[in-house]
Amino acid sequence: MAADEATKPPTTYEQLAAIEDDFDDVDTEILRLQYKLSSPLYNRRQEVVSHMNNSERFWPLVFEQVPEEFEKFVQPTDSELLSGALRDFNVTRFELEESAEAEDSKGEPRSLHFRFEFQANDWFEDRVLEKRIWYRHAKDGWAGLISEPVKIHWKKNKDLTQGLTDDAIALFQARSAAGDMMKQDLPEYQALVKKVESWNGANTSFFTWFAWISSRRYVGAEESAQAEKETAERREKRKQGEQVEDHSSDKVVTDQDAEVHPFGEELALALAEEVWPAATKFFIQAQEAADDEMSEAEFEEEDADESDEDDEEVSPIDIPSLVKGKKNKHDENGGPPKKRQKT
Amino acid sequence: MAADEATKPPTTYEQLAAIEDDFDDVDTEILRLQYKLSSPLYNRRQEVVSHMNNSERFWPLVFEQVPEEFEKFVQPTDSELLSGALRDFNVTRFELEESAEAEDSKGEPRSLHFRFEFQANDWFEDRVLEKRIWYRHAKDGWAGLISEPVKIHWKKNKDLTQGLTDDAIALFQARSAAGDMMKQDLPEYQALVKKVESWNGANTSFFTWFAWISSRRYVGAEESAQAEKETAERREKRKQGEQVEDHSSDKVVTDQDAEVHPFGEELALALAEEVWPAATKFFIQAQEAADDEMSEAEFEEEDADESDEDDEEVSPIDIPSLVKGKKNKHDENGGPPKKRQKT
User: Fold this and answer.
1) What is the ipTM of this complex?
2) Which CATH entry fits the domain spanning A9-277: 3.60.150.10, 3.30.1120.90, 3.40.50.300, 3.40.50.720?
3) How many whole angstroms separate alpha carbon B287 and alpha carbon A16?
4) How far is A184 from chain B (nearest CA, A)?
5) Phi, psi of B222 (to 5 degrees)
6) B7 Cβ under 8 Å from any chain A Cβ
């Protein structure tokens, strides 16, 4: 094996790497196409939900039924708040929307926009909380999701994030003013790092996520545009058979000491790829669970009072099976093949 | 909650279910588009690999590096055979290829064709083993992957499947002759069930997979066409707001007592969705592992004999980082969002 190594034409590897680059482009294009094809269906779903009798219960029920992996992101008080006050939820890929308006077919499909609508509640003044997350390129070759901290107007003594959201915003503003988004020589930096340290990644509120920035460090639009250009140039050279330097020896710079949410990216992807697409399934599951509880209650009631004749079927059609049939179909055949995976 | 139930217009649920049907169609269409966009890249990859100096080592190295989940499907003797004799491997979605030739844009993208090419070896006479797997619809509403057992011409006393592949073929032929693919009143059925039982799902050879039929039961082309038509009609009614019966109360009929490979579908999907797309990554990992071993060997040699001057770099370019850079990129940003999941 290893003896062959020296005799191999290096271009073979450059060629394989160039093909992998093109596979990445296919993945990105597939995301664009998927958004284009599924957006009208998400809109129809929102429309149908808005006409339901208990439409205000749809999203709270969905969030109650989300999968176990999601539960670690949500504390009991968060659940109480979401269950009581969440009224609408929406996920869009805003850079695709913007590029469609500009008739540009190459918008970035990985950037996400989350919109939560709340009714008046005891915790904060906001009726809408929105978070934008950009897919950006860093000058060291990294590319990934980054965001900016979002202000939540907490009511007095009701801040579920224990000041973390406010402190993250204070640092972001101080750094913006200083023109250096990695600046550490700031009182806001020291304060936030100390608080994050004492917090130690435990007991993070769902709402701390609104202040999440990145799994690595903030990357601005300008740096991203420049880095994307350089990556494209490197790829073009590689395609021409040239050997190109990559960034694998660069020192990795992170800002994680000041990051308030350790799983911000994971949570964003769970919301966009699990909760949002499977909302109907979760809603039906919640109905089913409610029916089960109901039947049990009826049974006990009946047991106690035999004269109760009023035990007609609560749900006139077989609601759960409508959507559960689908679940079985997917589970047993392994579902539609997953997208191409390279990692 | 449950008290609201009786007042809900049933059409809301029919509408939500109809939207879920349309999401399924989008998933299927996305698979078609993904195949169309990525096929030329897979062809280029095969072309580049075929011109490598050690091209005959490519697939054996890939199969050595596949992820842990895959290892349970491959016994040590299988590994020996694959490592020594596998020469080429290819996965296509043959119903898409066929429909493209017929200028039909609606081919089934979930059907798979696997082709393994071998050099002369001690185990079997075949130089090519091919397995086709169809995505088919059963009359009870189930839809999923099914296949037919594939003959392997084992050399004397070399059958790694201990006769399971031959017995599966014998039963398939007896049932075909009888015109009943579920017939149990056959000596071939009794023999196979007994053998499967004694086998108890343990120690299954990779090659037993060639005789795998289904995670449920065999479904022929005729039944599938009829069932698909009925499903489409039900969906159309549902879209028109009609309440439709589903099959959730049907008795599930399986043929698993006579199924020779308990994880046949899982293995097919692992080959098609993990091994095939990520082959370049696995190959590079294998090179890297070989380099590491080499360096260690050199280091020890050097240690023993200080006069050895011949320790130049084996790999003139940074091969691993070419593709590993990608890996980091995907890992750290969570990769491109996964496809819409509903199960």
Assistant:
1) 0.82
2) 3.30.1120.90
3) 13
4) 23
5) -70, -50
6) yes
